[in-house]
Request: fold
Amino acid sequence: MDKNKKIRIFALGVFFTFTILIFQFKMVLAQSPLETPKVDVNTNKEWVVRFSRNLEPSTVNNSNIYVTDEDKNPVPVEVTLGSNPNTVLISPKTGGYEPGKQYYLIINDAVESTSGKKLNKPLTLQFTTANAYSDGTDYQYLPNISSDNFEYMPLLSSQKQEFFINCSSGTSVQYRIFVNAQDDPDGSYTELTNGYTSEENGKIISSKILSSGTNGEKYKVIIYVKRDRAVGIHRDANTDYDNYYIDYFRCVDDVDVNPDDYLAYNVSLDDIVKSQVDLKGNSTPVFVAANIMDNTASRNQIKYYVNPNNFLDSYGKYQFLKLTYTEGTEVDNLNDFLKGKGIFEGMGQSFLNAAKANNINAAYLVSHALLETGNGTSQLASGGARNSAGNYIYGTPVYNFFGIGAGGKDPIRGGTDTAYRNGWSTPEKAIEGGASWLASQYINNPSYNQDTLYKMRWNPANSGQHQYATDIAWAYKQIPNIMKSIQDVSSNSANLKFEIPKLKE
Reply:
């Protein structure tokens, strides 16, 4: 390539270095060729590409400079000229790239200098994002949001959400707020403000009433901040901004809580969240999306699922259901419910026997097994791990229906080893053995007394210790199956008992 046509990319590892680059172009902290793949890239990474010549602005666009995923599908980014005419900024899509994914930044040969010179060939940078979600940007020396609070948790579908925002620059800033509904198929964002606005009396009030969806709706909120009377340094699909902050709240139609259902705990929401954020290794809380198990959850993702106040409606409260045994479940009803559920078809009597023997709610036991095994079809439900020749690693099938021991980097092998050690060589033994383990370790354990899904996941009495799952949404994900199983197999749902943690203010 001719020297005058040479392109250089500066791949900066953390957010604050971009600000330094933008304002002091001579302070280059790291330089590397495009040919070298980048790994562990922050999901909010803004790429800064510097050319050896000033660029023709009309050629700096999303047709000539773009990002694709590993399947070559286009990924939304904003492509703009930097303050220096030889520099291009490629900003990530709204909310950042997906964690733990491979992407390609492509610069084709249609990019021109002001003198009409083109690149000899397209250039490609391969990068892989870190396995961790982010709560927003952190461009130093610019206004930065440190935290926010919601007036309503949960938000009722008749209310307008109010936001209390803590910002490093006090009141000399403006905010713009967008939300995205979790169940929105196209991932679009709705603005809750009318453009950038200043706080009033310490808060910003939404301009819109939101839908609660079918069973309550989770909303991802992006709060943008910029200096007052200034154009934001950065830009994404929604707006210009200096920094943005991501949080979550839930919208429901009603609150269905009996005051007698509360149990007070001498621990605050912030205490529990901190204990989770501090967990490392195989205990690190993860947000499971599309069966990807190793993406570290952000602080605000954790806070959303930990907070009992988000789940006080008639649907969400089922994660606070007491899981001890209740009469009223019939074998025929169980078998009807289990039709088409893989290996569990016809196993109603085994589930009922195990529930009675171990003082566990039968509907919960079935629900838990279905969730952990993909409705009775997972590898652990089909005999466990196999070797390269396709044979069972222990020479015979073993079964694990509750994910016991199935953690770490190889959950299939871990779950199989656990099943073998415990002699779960038949489906019946796996149901009984798994129920016994759940009862002794959690539900009926006199030391832990983790007899709700919420307590199994978060253990508010000793947060960060003796927790059943690493998936932060595990308790919530159990709700559809447990509600349906109670409806279909139990005759006394009116006697259900709930225990909702009341956390210290």
Observations:
- Confidence is low (pLDDT under 50) at residues 1-31.
- The first helix runs from residue 15 to 23.
- Residues 50 and 87 are 4 Å apart (CA to CA).
